[in-house]
Amino acid sequence: MSTAQSQSSGERIYDPVAGRVRGFGTTVFAEFTALANAVGAVNLGQGFPNFAAPDFVKDAACAAIAADLNQYARSAGHPRLVQALAQVYSPLFDRPLDPLREIVVTVGATEGIFAAVQALVDPGDEVILIEPFYDSYPAAVTMAGGAPVYVPLRAPAGSRHAGDWTLDLAELTAAITPRTKLLIINTPSNPLGKVYTRAELEAIAAIVHRHNLTVLSDEVYEWMVYPPAEHVRIATLPGMWERTVTLGSAGKTFSVTGWKIGWAIAPPTLAHAILMAHQWIPFAVSTPMQEAVAVALEESDARGYFSWLSRMYRAKRDHLLVVLDDVGLTPMTPDGSYFIIVDTAALDAPVAPGERRDIAICRWLTKEIGVAAIPPSPFYSEPHQYLTDNLARFTFCKTDKMLEEAARRLKKIKTR
Ligand SMILES: Cc1ncc(COP(=O)(O)O)c(C=O)c1O
Q1: Does the beta carbon of 49 sit less than 6 angstroms from any atom of ligand 1?
Q2: Which residue(s) pair with 147 in the sheet?
Q3: Predicted local confidence at residue 75, as pLDDT
Q4: Which domains occur in the chain, in start order?
Q5: 3-class DSSP state for residue 383?
Q6: Is the torsion defined by CA of 295, 297, 303, 305 positive or negative?
Q7: What number of other Cβ atoms are within 10 A of residue 18's Cβ?
Q8: What number of CA atoms fall less than 13 Å from residue 260's CA on the CB side?
Q9: Is 257 in the pocket of ligand 1 (CB under 6 A)?
Q10: How far apart are the C-alpha atoms of 314 and 310, rounded to whole Å?
């Protein structure tokens, strides 16, 4: 099985002493946000925008509340929202999407991940997770009784670009067994900001076909792609529509992560399976928030909103790249998302015996420099966590004022 690692699925036992289900503890985001608050650090760790949502989006929400849209929504999604999603995505998928049979609205993409995995994974099935992965994937797979199988992206030493991190196709193929059911891909990716190229996706699609797999494509950062990079939807590659579930998020798209509105787009059989899981998870999603997202989507094109979003984030990315580089936190330029992974090898901060270096460095940055970053080891399976020893993740989805304050504090790294 080369270096890919499989994890058994027998972890779903409530531990009354720890007060939690074994294997699912506090997340690194909760821990570092609490630490950042406690020491008054500028939090460039957790990826939520701290700036106002666009007025046209907020106005739509106020109008939806005023219109008394207060009752349960249609389980698969508020009709106006699925209609608006079909309108926006049909040209992008190069096919007329059926709003009533090919779209399921979820409680953020997080529920989309969970419902899709519940729908598609049976106990004992294996699911390929590409490292670094978004941390809810292994939890969703394990809770479905499946077994995550990990395949890391690998970068040449001294890499300065997220695009240099690539999937070894031989390693991917070796990780596939007769039990493999699903492959989860994330483009643009969190935490790396890698945008898979068409050629990379075609190569993955060929393997998916050969082994008759289904793909869950998490594309929540689809509008945060920085030219010349181009967002390619794997579902649009030949023969892939039939075997792909694509996820999106209003939280990321409209800077309203607390609204928790997401969607799954898939052929009718897969969408129906997701709906059958979804109806027993939240049953339905907030009606007025769905109405607001519908109106926001309807207006986005005419307002040039999506290209504005990408330009706005690109300027923030470029600013933070210069700041990080200047203080010796060697950044790997992301082509998408609002995260930057840096190489911290040049930092000589203290690491206690037995402590993971990436966690120690991020604690030190938070406490001593006053800027919180996220250690990337939780985005890896345990056997591969050593790959993140010299890495930290910063986010730039923050106001320019906050990024400037972070820049001022980060300069301390040079002068200490
Ligand atoms: C890769 C990825 N997928 C899904 C999500 C969750 O999206 P949502 O906020 O819509 O639940 C996130 C949020 O950080 C993410 O980074």
Answers
A1: no
A2: 126
A3: 98
A4: 9-52+306-415 (3.90.1150.10), 55-303 (3.40.640.10)
A5: helix
A6: positive
A7: 9
A8: 10
A9: yes
A10: 6
